Every structure is written in structure tokens, then in C-alpha cells.
Amino acid sequence: MKFRIALALTLITASAVAPQLAAADDAPAAAPSAKCLHPSPQLHGKMTALQARVAAATQAGKALDLTPPAFEALALDIERELAAIQADSGLMKTTSVPVKLLLSDIRDGTVLMRQATHTDARRIGLVKVMQDLEAYRRAAARTDCEPPPVQQ
Q1: What's the burial of 54, exposed, middle or buried (CB within 10 Å: 0-12/13-18/19+)?
Q2: Model-level pTM?
């Protein structure tokens, strides 16, 4: 029984990953524009401020010493900022899909920071948030991007 479940999970995972791997082989031709976020100046300012706030809260190794209430407070602060970004419908209409996915990924990290029962899991959530914010910064700083497509 366990073998059948494991086999089924493996096949499901393989069927989900195979198309992505096949598409990755064709990706070099589209790579420059695929990694471009095209953030609006308003969104970029909010994301930069959020990254600075997280960096200040985790300066000089303090992230490893945060207590569960401190993780929760930081996660709630990040979630408030994300909620403000996502509540601005005008801003979200002009936000690209990769940025929306990053915002969702950041929220997942904050949920882990708030709800995990082990401190190490909370740290993993914080690291995930920091990695996502850094990925945003790197992608937004690209200079080899084509102009964003015109939305009609």
C-alpha cells in the first residue's frame, strides 16, 4: 500500500515537473524578458521600503536570536505592508505576474514565521522572505529588459 502511494506521488510529481523542464530547454531565447519584472515606481518604492525594514529587523545576526513573539511581530508587519500593496487595485492591475507570484511567496514565508511551532521553522520562513525580497531587488535592477508589453 505504501509503495503504491509513493509510486503515485512520484508519477504525479514527475508529470508536473516534466513540462517545466521541457520549457526550460527553450528558455534561453526568452530569458532576458522572462526575468524582468517591470515594477511601477510606486510598487518599487514600497518593495524597497519593505526590504529595508526586514533588513533592519535582522541586522547583525539578530535574526537567529529572534523570539517567537518577535518573529510574529515582524511577520505581521510584513503582512500589513503586503496587504496594503494588494489592496491597491490600481497598482495590482499594472503589476506583472512574476511580481504577484513573489508577493504570494513572501506571504507564505510570513505564515511560516507566524505559525510554525519550532524556532528553526520560523527562521526558514524569515530566510524565505529575505530571499524573495532579494530576488525582487535583483530582477527589478536588470537593465537588459525589453519595455513592458502594452496592456489593452
Answers
A1: buried
A2: 0.67
